[in-house]
Design goal:
The chain is of the alpha/beta class. 33% of the residues lie in helices and 20% in strands. The structure holds S-adenosyl-L-homocysteine and iron/sulfur cluster.
């Protein structure tokens, strides 16, 4: 909300708050629909160009409101341009990374939820770099809108000839989304709204390392987004070796929260497993994981470890990953192996650090 001469970032406001804010500025709430279309669907960032709004409204907005934009510090491309990583500078000079990945069927944006991350998972470049601050809802939604603009500017088309647009969002960039719960949910709600980018709820995945209160809150609020839980170890001891956060919320508490979420939403949960040679890729680990997931609607996503400078562990061999998958499948568990994209530009899972040389 407005205070003093500060400009209000319109992308920070949910539907109800936007209407209230317009009212406070003496603008009829009937203009909210047009305004949202400019903000989300058309990507207009200059109030003067919002021609369907009366001049008086445009002038009032220009005086009191702002819209998140980023400065592009660097663009890196891989896979013939189908994977693009952007280093974006925020208004206060902090930097985040956003990744745009196109395949024939999907156009996915991987968004950051924090500048850095306080949780320090040993194999993650973001965790190795430390924590700056939470991102605002506008900065989170703004990354998807930025990606949409990139597609628009490139005149990108899908395989079937239709204009390409963002179809999926994964909150798997820098940071832990459930430590920035309100901003993440406001951003996703705005993007999924039919007046926003109209992305399907199930096409949005929130990945958490196991912030238990956030999972309980998603369950009690019946948040319709897909949930991915970064497990990596199937015992408390194994998790503790990799994920300091396991000291705060034990594996037992985490699995309780997952059961609650699955029951409340009638949804399966994705469990992510970064496969590290000799650490968590053995038959005994597969057996422990199968046992742990017993009775939970689950799909396991195997992510071959991506290299980061701060961690000496190595990627499991393809054959080890394949065997691990077969063992899980033999226990009746659905498994997918995450396609590795953009490793050469450090755009893979856990490689985002906004470092000048990445
Ligand atoms: N903080 C959230 C989301 C961001 S990390 C979380 O941890 O879930 C997104 C995914 O990348 C997580 O599953 C994380 O464990 C994984 N990841 C982190 N570092 C990695 C690395 N070096 N190689 C492969 N996956 C990694
Ligand atoms: Fe943070 Fe996720 Fe990286 Fe862990 S893996 S340090 S929770 S971003």
């Amino acid at each position: 909300m407005a205070c003093g001469n500060e400009h209000v970032d319109l992308l920070n406001l949910d539907l109800a708050s936007l209407a209230l804010q317009l009212k406070a500025w003496g603008i009829a709430t009937a203009h909210a629909g047009h305004l949202r279309r400019y903000l989300y669907r058309d990507g207009v960032r200059d109030f003067a160009a919002m021609h369907e709004l009366p001049p008086r409204v445009r002038a009032q907005l220009a005086e009191s409101a702002t819209i998140t934009t980023f400065a592009i510090e660097r663009e890196s491309r891989a896979d013939d341009g189908l994977t693009r990583k952007y280093l974006l500078r925020l208004h206060d000079g902090r930097q985040i990374e956003t990744v745009l990945m196109r395949t024939g069927r999907r156009t996915t944006v991987c968004v950051s939820s924090q500048a850095g991350c306080p949780l320090g998972c040993v194999f993650c470049a973001t965790g190795q770099a430390g924590f700056d601050r939470n991102l605002t809802a506008g900065e989170i939604a703004g990354q998807a809108l930025f990606a949409q603009q990139v597609l628009r500017d490139a005149g990108a088309v899908r395989n079937d000839g239709a204009p390409d647009r963002v179809s999926n969002i994964v909150v798997m960039g820098m940071g832990e989304p459930l430590l920035n719960y309100d901003a993440v949910m406001t951003a996703l709600d705005n993007l999924c709204d039919p007046g926003g980018l109209a992305i399907g709820f199930k096409q949005v995945t929130i990945s958490t390392v196991g912030v238990v209160p956030g999972i309980f809150r998603m369950a009690s609020e019946r948040r319709p987004y897909s949930l991915a839980v970064s497990l990596h170890g199937a015992t408390q001891t194994d998790r503790l070796r990799l994920l300091p956060v396991a000291r705060t919320w034990s594996l037992e508490e985490l699995m309780d929260a997952c059961r609650r979420y699955a029951a409340a939403l009638h949804r399966k949960i994705f469990f992510e497993w970064t496969v590290i040679a000799g650490e968590n890729d053995g038959a005994e680990h597969a057996a422990a994981l199968a046992e742990l997931l017993h009775g939970i609607p689950a799909q396991v996503n195997l992510i071959p470890l991506n290299p980061t400078t701060g961690y000496a562990g190595s990627t499991a061999a393809d054959s080890a990953v394949a065997t691990f998958r077969e063992l899980l499948q033999a226990s009746g568990i659905k498994v997918s192996i995450r396609q590795r994209r953009g490793i050469e530009i450090a755009a893979g899972c856990g490689q985002l650090a906004a470092s000048p040389n990445a």
